[in-house]
Amino acid sequence: MDRFVFLTVDGLAKGAVYAAFALAIVLIWRGARIVNFAQGAMAVATVYAAFSVTQATGSYWLGFAAALAAGLILGAVVERAVMRFVSHTSPLNAVIVALGLVLLLRAVLGVFYGNEFRPVETPFSRTGITVGGVSLLSRYDLFVFGAVLAVVVLLALLFTRTAVGLRMRSAAFAPEVSRLLGVNVAGMLTLGWALAAAVGALAGMLVIPTELGLHPNAMDLVFVSSFTAAVVGGLDSPPGAVIGGLAVGLVLSYVSGYVGSDVTPLAVLALLLAVLLIRPGGLFSGIRTRHV
Q: Among the four residues 23, 137, 244, 262, which has the most C-beta atoms within 10 Å?
């Protein structure tokens, strides 16, 4: 029972990070109908920016702010300079360009920082609080939950309570009508990419310190798990992305704890295939996709 409780808590902590990254994937999908396969590499680039700032200033929080700012800038630049000029005649065009962007970012990071793993510090202790002989959430886990919850609440308020959020939603689902109503659809799309990259940067800052360390390929497995979470929840459903992220975290934790860590990649693949075969639109997707 103690092991089950530990694995559940650990799975929820990891699932919260997958949920944040899945939200970033969903944001871009809702706005541009593109699965951004470069999301992981972009997140790693922002964590390297945070690493540089922290090394120069000695402040984790300045580095944290630098990562979020770098995410906003990088997302806007990628949309303005690259994705805006990709032809939408075939869905594969955006996929190929995104994969090319992955190779470019990895090469640039490798040139400037090398390919060795670099340790990344955390602002709080990762030692779990022991209750009844069971090690539960650490202070860092609580920080992760709080950060992800804050992102979910802020995005919900943005899209439901602000004029900018309503314009972003209308630009995503009815771009032609939105243009006739005076909405800057291109600007809203750029903002969507910037916000998604910032959320991805946050996820990178939360998960990389708990893995082997900072490396140009550090987010590869995280991206696969988060993409699975987005598919499980439904690429059109931000709440589904959160629930899917927590579900994937729990599944991976249980499989790793009871079967073995070597089986976890197969568990992710099996979960993804099961959802695609049974409910391709995702378990929580109730929005009819628009045609582009």
A: 244
Structure tokens at 16: 């919260």
d(C-alpha 235, C-alpha 1), whole Å: 35
Under 8 Å between Cβ of 18 and 249: yes
Place of tokens 């944290």: 64
Distance, CA of 253 to CA of 134 (rounded, Å): 16
Half-sphere exposure of 142 (CA within 13 A, CB side): 9
Residue 274 forms part of a structural domain? no
d(CA 154, CA 115): 36
| pTM of the predicted model as reported, rounded to 2 decimal places | 0.89
Rounded to whole angstroms, how far apart are CA atoms 70 and 18?
20
Smallest Cα–Cα separation from 80: which of 179, 199, 189, 175?
189
Strands (E), 117-276: 128-131, 134-138
**Domain coverage including residue 35:** 21-219
Q: DSSP 3-state helix, strand, coil percentages of the chain (rounded to 5)?
A: 75, 5, 20
Give the torsion sign (CA, 7, 8, 14, 18). Answer: positive
* 129 has pLDDT over 80: no
Domain total for the chain? Answer: 1
In a domain, 241, yes or no: no
> Is 27 contained in some domain?
yes
On whether the CB atoms of residues 18 and 264 are closer than 8 A, the answer is no
For 203-233, how does the pLDDT look when each residue is reduced to its tens digit (9 = 90+)? Answer: 999 999 987 789 999 998 899 899 999 998 8
Specify which residues 135 forms β-bridges with: 130
Question: Among 13-17, 38-42, 235-239, whose mean pLDDT is lowest?
Answer: 235-239
Token pair recorded at residue 54:
């922290």
pLDDT tens for each residue of 271-283: 888 888 888 777 7
Helix (H) or strand (E) holding 275: helix 264-278
**Chain length of the chain:** 292
159 by Cβ neighbours in 10 Å (0-12 / 13-18 / 19+) ranks as middle
